[in-house]
Amino acid sequence: MLQILGLQVFDGPSVYSHKPVARLRLRMSKCLDKPSNEFSGLYQRLTADFPGLKTHHCSRDHEGGFLERLQEGTYLPHIIEHLCLEVQSCLGHDVRYGKARTAEEDCYDIIFAYQDERLVEPTIRFVLDYIRSILSGKSFDFSQRFRHLEEISRQVRPVEQDKGKALVVAFAGGDDSPVLLTAGMLLAYGLKTGVAASRGLYINGVRKSGRNAACKSAARLVISTPDLDVAMIETDTKHILDEGLAYCKANVAVLCSLIDGHLGKKHIESLEDLLYIKSLVIEAIQPDGYCVLNADEPYITDLLDKARGNIILYGLNRYASTLQEHINSGGEAVCCCDDGIYWIKEGDEARILGFKDIAGAYTGIALTGNIMAAIAVCKALGVPLGAVPSLILSQLRGKRHKQGAGYQYPSSGIL
After folding, report:
1. What is the pLDDT of residue 408?
2. 167-414 homologous superfamily
3. Are 107 and 97 a contacting pair, CB within 8 Å?
4. Tens of pLDDT along 106-139?
5. Are 299 and 255 contacting, i.e. CB atoms less than 8 angstroms apart?
6. pTM above 0.85, yes or no
């Protein structure tokens, strides 16, 4: 009865909310289909123990909405969601967001906001034990248990996360090739750059770890590193689902592709789900930040609807309808024309590289996309367009360096 199957605590943007939330997965068993109006005395006990529930709006959009639902007949996951919020409210925390939805078979996901992570598990234990006591008819020492929660709350002190001053550039989709190409260009331009990507963790070009660093802990390590100008973060579908984002809002977000190498049926049911998950990256943007989007993506129209901040598109064909509409409306774009890669905005065009310039390193469409994405990121970060060609060529034609010899981003071998 009410078996906990999992608990995830997100302290930043996640697919559930842009604010901190916890996701509790519960197996309901025999409690699954029994509505609240069939539990004798449930309404009276809840309103007596938690008078603050009368202020909960729920889906009715007015105070008392939740109590109306309780009297009409709602289900235990919904009640547990509201109790997790109300218990925290009684402890002085202003939390209001929550939802309950079917997960699988007789399981529910209960999502609720929190202000202090260290109170999440004690709150869940309190609520579930309270509900179990009602279902079983056993006693529950409400006053003693709540005093214990208050004591935990008094001992809890907010922990400030280390915050660096680096601009955050987040990449999603594909692999880490455009991340490393862009990082090498920025470092060559003179910007102190850290990278957390699939092929390792780098600080100013020196590899600190060869392990997969496309994860939240590595990203936070790079973001909090002192004196960096730019933190380059790679993320993927699995890590977005499991951990959320490592930052609140990025300065630049790059969505190269909806597809990455970490998909599994248990994570993704449809392309619509994938679109919903990946969109988090282009929604969590600073107001003056940039979204860099691949215009060749089949779902580009949906992505444009979700992207925040300023938008830069890149694509293989400047005359494709999406690119043309974006350019005609005054948008910025990086795209291929007959003889090379161009930057276009409001009628102004500048050729960045001719295809002949990169012929020695040219390996096809994948490399061209990486180059265009890198150009867009550099422009978003304020790198002058005049400096970009030499920065690209220095990476494409650069030789590999020996371990520990300074800048360590793999060059032509990874593009």
Report:
1. 45
2. Mur-like, catalytic domain (3.40.1190.10)
3. no
4. 899 999 999 999 999 999 999 999 999 998 889 9
5. no
6. yes
